[in-house]
Amino acid sequence: MNKAVKATFAFAASAAAIASVVSVPSLVSAWGDSAGGRRSYTYQEITDNAASWGNKIVFNSISNSTIGDEKNFVGARVNTGVDAGKNNVWNGNNITVKDGEEYIIRLYVHNNNPNGAVSKNTRVAFNIPTTSAKQVQVNGFIFSDNATPNKYWDYVNFNSDNAFHLEYVYGSALIENNGIGKNGGRQLSDEIVTKAASNNGIQIGYTSLNGEVPGCYQYASYITIRVKAVFDTEYTVQTKVRLAGTTEWQTQVAANVGDKVEVQTQYR
Questions:
Q1: Could you tell me how many helices (H) and strands (E) the chain has, helices first?
Q2: Backbone angles phi and psi of 191, in degrees to 5
Q3: What is the DSSP letter of 207?
Q4: How far, in Å, CA of 142 to CA of 84, rounded?
Q5: Which of 104, 122, 169, 179 has the most CB atoms lying inside 10 A of its own CB?
Q6: β-strand 7-14 against 32-33: which pairing, if any?
Q7: Are residues 61 and 38 in contact, defined by beta-carbon separation less than 8 angstroms?
Q8: Among 132, 130, 126, 129, which Cα is nearest to 99's?
């Protein structure tokens, strides 16, 4: 590097508070569900056999839907600032990113029951890894208490020749539908990203955010969030510690519960 920036921080903490456990939801690859692979239907197959469906609820299983194959229900595109939900071309599996550019990620939710049977406690979530890599996979999830299967997932890969990470744009989560999400959509909680994937999602709905989603196309929803791609240039991070009152920084120290420890982090 021709130039280097160095920042050093030191703080005191008790040894008992140094360790922490962070719960990260496990990632999944491609589309899938909790039943191990639901079958696909054409729109005609469902409508021609509506009587046999009764109150059976399945999400996102139509192969010739308004978005194409509904199993590929998570997609992304560059944020052009126009119509976040319906009328755009979405990249369903892979998208190439540019440094500093903002992207919209869409999750489509369609209760396929042709008789209007209502899905209960319907929830959605996104999992956005915090790691830096040349490919970052974002997973979207749908949950429902009375659907079979009751959990669905799909992904979209963000790709680059350079290492990067994705930053979620806080306050960007929206639901768009013909009910509560009309006229520009309704904002959803940031917990859809920050903790929902590990807690079975946040509730959505049609007339309110009560988890109830009736069957048929007119009740479908488009859930969107925004992320920013940030390229990670070459850097090093070095952390050293020392017992409070000593002068020499080390890579590790032997500390007892109650001892005060100083930690120094150097970013270059």
A1: 3, 16
A2: -65, -15
A3: S
A4: 20
A5: 122
A6: unpaired
A7: yes
A8: 132
Count of alpha carbons within 13 angstroms of residue 81, beta-carbon side: 1
Please name the helix (run of DSSP H) or strand (run of DSSP E) that holds residue 142, with its range, or none. Answer: strand 133-143
The two tokens of residue 153 are 């997932």
Nearest to 72 by CA among 82, 84, 60: 60
Select from 151, 186, 122 the least CA-distant residue to 26. Answer: 151
pLDDT of 253: 86
- CA gap 231, 240 in Å, rounded: 27
Give the separation between CA 265 and CA 249, rounded to whole angstroms.
11
Rounded-to-10 torsion of CA 44, 50, 51, 55? 150
Paired sense of beta strands 151-168 and 32-33, if any = antiparallel
Reading the block at residue 100, the tokens are 């500093």
pLDDT score of 83: 57
Radius of gyration of the chain (CA): 23
Which letter does DSSP use for residue 117 in this model?
Answer: P
Confidence band, pLDDT 50/70/90 cuts, at residue 12: very low
What is the spatial order of strands in the sheet that 237-243 belongs to? 7-14, 260-267, 237-243
Q: What is the predicted pLDDT for the residue at 236?
A: 73
* Residue 196 structure tokens: 């929902």
How do residues 224-255 score in pLDDT, each as one tens digit? 999 999 998 766 778 899 988 898 899 888 88
pTM: 0.75
Tokens read off for 79:
């944020």
Phi and psi at 112, nearest 5°, equal: -80, -5
Tens-digit pLDDT profile for residues 35-64:
998 999 999 999 999 999 999 999 999 999
Q: Tell me what pLDDT residue 82 has.
A: 60
